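User: Hello, can you help with two protein structures?

Assistant: Certainly.
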Amino acid sequence: MTAALVLIDLQNDYFPGGRMELVCADAAVGQAARLLAAFRQRGRPVIHVQHVSTRAGATFFLPDTAGVQIHAAVQPQAGEAVVVKHFPNAFRETGLQAALRDAGVTKLVFAGVMTHMCVDTTVRAAADLGWPCQIAHDACATRDLQFGGAPVAAAEVQLAFLAALNGAFAAVRPTAELAAEP
């Protein structure tokens, strides 16, 4: 099987000083960079997904801002595809599906942010499209949420969404295991 690494929305606005800072984003991008290095070393396909907000009233990932740029730790190299999206699902109205098929990919490994939004939505879509999926859980991050006036800590959000994805939609594994696969 040819695995492709799909890096979702690892963009400056999610990091310290950005417009939508996430909890543990620096740790997640460090693990994503480790996974990226392993894929590059083995010559495996890498797809960078970049969200550009076109929705009226959007407050982050705005076109032509530093925040929309992909984080320096995981910058695309020559030959690596960059798929621009405008919705949480990276398959919606993008060339992601075609890029994966053109590269001869047979399974997907995901890392990125936000776990509860774009990672979740994209992984579920990938599974629905028939792709075998894996998620590097420690190469993902999210933020604190709120529901019904009650706070939900990012750690709880992260665990709940990864637990829901594990099994039915993906195999959720640590970066170290995924990076060590031949």
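That covers the first. Now for the second protein you mentioned:
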Amino acid sequence: MTYQPDKIDSMLRDAGIRVTSQRRTVIAALVQSHDHPTAEDVHARAKTVDRSVSFATVYRALATLVDAAIVQRISVDDGPSRFEMAPKTEHDHLVDVDNGEVLELASEELAALRSRLAAELGYEILSHHSVLRVRKRQKL
């Protein structure tokens, strides 16, 4: 998704959230991210657009957007939470325990396996979020 103010406004309205310039700025910062930024990263990026945006405003906006399922929070052990726009396709995350890098792991095979296992137990998956903690293998 590219930063389109009309789309962002519609997204907020559809979720029953009041449209504010600060929320627009936070979403724009996430939409334009190619990584999984922390709240501090989002704040720094938002400040380049609107110098008046405070960290508290960004933090509250992120919490509101997570509650509305517009944004997804990725919790990484003791490290700071990271954020991304709610994914359109199901995927998991790999977190490198040595450097904190967060990578997306999209696999139709894994999604099908999860669904099959849940169905065998009599359930359907409504949502999921998996974080696999990883470390690069040492070369021999």
